[in-house]
Amino acid sequence: MAATSPTVTSAPPQSAWARLKRTLKVLFYEVAGAVFAVLALAWLNLTIRGYLTRDAAKWFLAIPLCVAAMFIFFAVSSFYRARKL
């Protein structure tokens, strides 16, 4: 009995515009992720500085910490989405 080899189907060739569109989408998601990561670092810096200098109540520092966590989530999800494309 002859073994049948699986047929490999290649993706149809993409036009230049489709490749450019995909590249721009990936670039957009990576830039957005980098911006969100920088903003998260700024909010974390604000939280740490407020904690160390005792400028604000400890419960009040939860607000910038939550904002930083939100920006970290946005950054990670943006980089993940760029990777998925």
Care to describe what's here?
It is a single chain. By secondary structure, this protein is an all-alpha fold. The chain has a domain at 29-84. The protein contains two helices and no strands. The chain has helices at 16-53, 62-84. Helix 1 (16-53) packs antiparallel against helix 2 (62-84).
Give a quick rundown of the structure.
The protein is mainly α.
Q: Considering DSSP H and I runs of 4 or more, what fraction of the residues is helical?
A: over 70%
- Name the structural class: mainly alpha
Strand content: under 5%
How large is the count of helical segments?
2
Give me the count of strands.
0
What order do the SSEs take from the amino end to the carboxyl end, as H and E? HH
Task: Kindly provide the radius of gyration, computed on alpha-carbon positions and rounded to a whole number of angstroms.
Answer: 22 Å
What does the main sheet amount to?
A: none
Shape, please? elongated
Gap from first CA to last CA: 42 Å
Mean pLDDT, to the nearest integer, reads 89
Q: Low-confidence segments, ≥5 residues, pLDDT <50?
A: none
Offer a few descriptive terms.
85 residues; 2 helices; 72% helix; 0% strand; elongated
Topology:
Elements: H1 16-53, H2 62-84
